[in-house]
Structure formats: C-alpha cells, structure tokens
Write a structure and sequence with these properties.
The protein is mainly α. It has two domains: about 100 residues, no CATH class; about 150 residues, no CATH class. It is built from ten helices and no strands. Helix 7 packs antiparallel against helix 8 and helix 8 runs antiparallel to helix 9. The longest helix has 29 residues. The chain is globular, with a radius of gyration of 20 Å.
Length: about 250
C-alpha cells in the first residue's frame, strides 16, 4: 500500500512538472520577442494558428500529433517535448531530495527559472533582466526555508563570483555578459558562498569544455552562451552542493 501511495505521489509531482514545463515553453518563446506570456492562447510558431486545448496536453499531445502542427503540418521542435519532460523529471528529483515541502517549492521555482534562462541564453546569447529579478523571489524565500545558510554567507556569496566576473568584464572585452554577472549575484544569495564557488567551478568546467570544442572548429563565430553552464552549476550546487563539498573534504582528509 505504501509503495502504491508513493507511486501515485511521484506521478502527481511529475504531472505538475510537465504542466509547468509547458508554461516554461511559452515563457522561453515569448520573452525574447517581448510578447506577453500571461495573455493569449498558445499558437503554432510557423502558421500562427491557435492551438486547441486538447492539442496542448503536455507530452501526450506532441506524441499524439507525431510532432507536427495539426493545421499546417510543419514539424514542431522536439525541444518543446524535452523541456516538458525535463521539468517533470526535475520535479521528481527535487521531491526525492526534499519531499513535498516549502523547500521543494523554493528549489523547484528556482530550477524552473533557470531552465528559462538556459534556453533563452542558448537562443539569444542574452539573459533577460526580468528572469534574474524573478530568481530573486526563491532566493529571498530560501533565507527563511534554508536557515542553515547564514546571512553572512549569503552576502559574501553575492560578490564572491560576480565581482571577479565584473572586473574581468571591465578589462577583457566579452569576457562575461552582464546577465551572467547578475545571475551569479542572485545565485550567491540563494546558495551561500561555499556553494556559489562550487556552482561557478562546475559552470567553468562545462563551459570551458564547450569553448575548447568551439575553438577547435574552423568557424569564424567563436561566441558562446555561458549562462546555461552556470545554470547547471547553480542547480547542481542547490541540490547536491553540501554532499559534493563534504565528499571533496573527505577525499583529502579535511
């Protein structure tokens, strides 16, 4: 019986996740185009036909329609399906760590915003200020629901990475974008200084690996979005930062 209850609960959390993921797709598409994501029906980006409600069921509609618009027959990008699926799986992972709690709500909210930042930065090479401001909400709430991270640690975290990034950006053209700097400032308050260092380290490793591959290619455009790799680092540190840091200390007997 307990297994059945847990299975139903996990399914419920997954459904919540994919529904939110469907909304994130709207945000990701509309914010860079300065369109309202709070008003108006969803529409096909190819033919602009409004999508009927029963054709807009997360995951299932994409599979049912075989990834094509019912009106114009043009392919629908698989990323819409992947964003919904990833958001659902993220909701389950956070639930497995924190259970159904305010901590789950704070971390899931932060994760949802980071997904939007990641996809928009990939598309446009910019991080909208509105999303950074939105991330401040779970960051401020985390002060109350994650009291183990002290205020001093949070204040130091706001500058421990963002200030060096700012200095580098001032002296080296295109070293970091303003959105990256502001993102790490807010993340610093969310994580505390220790996990902010970890998040930046993960982001630098991942972003550095991609940068090396770009340099190896014989293409003129060597620019890349760094925000997505910072977002991966932030989310990893938010979920598993303390475990990773403790493992590192144990590895060296500290």
């Amino acid at each position: 019986m307990l297994v059945l209850i847990n299975s139903i609960l996990y399914l419920y959390i997954f459904v919540i996740g994919i529904v939110i993921g469907s909304f994130l797709n709207v945000v990701i598409y509309r914010v860079p185009k300065a369109l309202s994501f709070a008003k108006g029906r969803s529409f096909c980006p190819r033919c602009n036909a409004q999508i009927k409600g029963y054709h807009n069921i997360p995951l299932f509609s994409y599979l049912w329609l075989r990834g094509k618009c019912v009106d114009c027959g043009e392919p629908i990008a698989v990323r819409y399906l992947l964003v919904e699926l990833f958001t659902g799986l993220m909701a389950i992972l956070i639930f497995a760590v924190y259970g159904l709690s305010f901590q789950w709500l704070v971390v899931f909210s932060a994760g949802a915003i980071l997904i939007c930042i990641t996809m928009i930065d990939f598309d446009t090479m910019t991080i909208p200020n509105g999303l950074v401001i939105a991330l401040m909400a779970p960051a401020l709430l985390s002060f109350f629901f994650f009291p183990q991270i002290g205020l001093l640690s949070r204040v130091i975290g706001m500058g421990v990475i963002s200030l060096p990034m700012l200095v580098l950006a001032l002296f080296i053209a295109d070293a970091f974008g303003g959105g990256d700097i502001k993102l790490m400032g807010v993340a610093g308050f969310l994580l505390g200084w220790e996990n902010t260092l970890l998040a930046a380290f993960i982001g630098l490793i991942l972003g550095g690996a991609v940068a090396v591959m770009l340099l190896a290619r014989k293409t003129k455009d060597k620019h890349m979005a760094f925000g997505p790799y910072l977002c991966i680092g932030i989310m990893t540190a938010l979920l598993f930062g303390d475990i990773i840091i403790q493992w590192y200390f144990n590895l060296f007997g500290l």
